[in-house]
Description:
alpha+beta; 16 strands; 16 helices; 559 residues; 17% strand; seven-stranded mixed beta sheet
Amino acid sequence: RWGYTYFEYTGRLELPVGDTREHRLLRLGNGMRVLCISDPQARQSAAALAVRVGSTSDPREYPGMAHALEHMLFLGTRTHPGEHDFEAYLTQYGGYTNASTTATTTHYRLSVNNAGLAGALTRFAGFFVEPLLDARAIARELLAVESERLADAQSDTQRRAHIVSSTCCPMHAYAQFAGGSLASLQGSADRRGVELRDAMAAFFAREYAGDAMALAVIGGAGVAELVAMAVDAFSAVPGRTLAPARIVGHPLCDRKLGTVVRYQTVGARHDITLVFALPRAAHEYAANACKYMETLVGGAHAGALGTVLRELGWISAVEVAAPLAGSRLPGVLYVSLAATPAGFARHEELVQYVFAYLRVLRSHGAQAWHFGEVQRTLQLEFYHGERTAPVTAAVALACQLGCPHLRAGHAVSGTRLLYEFDAPGIEALLTLLDPENYRLYLGAREFGDADALPCVDPHLGVAYGETPLPRRLTSEAELAAAPLEHANRLQFPQPNPYVPANVPTCALQAPAPDNAGNNANDTDDVFQAPVLVRHDPLCELWLRTLPSTGGAMARSSIT
């Protein structure tokens, strides 16, 4: 119809309850996955495009190339050459744009009112078809990249992320300086006697291809019109002529395991982070054993690791970060303790408590009932949760569509749900969380030992030191024998009575009106109407029950 070939998925999509918006999932002739969602009630449209290119794709000669290219694509195309043309167009239609680069993905996003969507998509597609990459603009934009580097040097979150990557196996793609700088980009080009613009254009031509991209469009127009806009604008993106490079090896090779890295913070932060090495599991998003583990290690139940250590006054929070489901990187699992000064002073004891809790989890193995609770909690959030803003939703959809292992029917639900209970996978993960398979990071503004931080990172200026862990923190036998006064308080969670036994995954029927047609429960909602149970000068309290859950699910909102 528009002179381009595309393919449309005609199967069933997993959608939230009551989501009556029309969805269309396509694959363009260049391999790009596209999801169009028509929302007649939306006042603002949005689009996001994710490219499976990030800092781990950077050429070794040019650390930060993916990040710098992200900046440059906004600064003019052959059809719209003005550096601020795109931003001016969006502003005219009440919109804005932004982008972000991670280790394996770069995503671009825009928000614009409905009337401006067609023109915005045409201009947006030009980023990926005919960017100017003007040499003078590159020189100016590198100053913005340099400014971000200086800001990152003052952020403890960024300092830790940088030290984690820069101190891993030096030949691994993850070890490269992700953000880039004037020295790593222009300085590198100058030393080689080449034009940075030429190197950037070659990187763009090699990495930015249709089959490495996923696009999500949400707007108030009809779905057929949205499909027409997307097909017409983005079919011109070139397809890939070469197979994408694989990320080989693991960032935590054997000689990096069993070590401790101390690094200096700029704030009063006390960080204790254990990083475990895991295999690549991009194809296992349906079971996602790491999500199961996150709820246990990072849980807040009585007897949880975080609960016990908070009660002792040693930490303020525990955070567990697992690999993004579908990620191309070999996996790592972070267990981070935000320690108090008193807790940091006994950091070895806190590490012992982490492994004591992992022994508790291993003794229980993979519990189907707990997996069911996690699964149903995620179902509540997906099937009955609040709808997010269009631009937020578009980014999430585009990023998960980029997972090559994602089943077409899961284009919307994606990694937000758990679909399969994989007991052997959970058991295998538990065996990997052992003291011979981790690295320890300690972050503080000051260390008692003056020689603890002999090195200075050349990019962010972070002082750090790397030494072997003592055997008492790497030997399972010695850790198990450690005399921990409060170890008996660590417990596996008990069943949660507030998680419903069943979660409705389709719309419920509203109660039928009585013969007089004045049923008090008449409502446009798929659930019962709320009932006023308290009214006084201080508050109003309304209760709405969800019949199919047996009263087990509860939500509250206080204003």
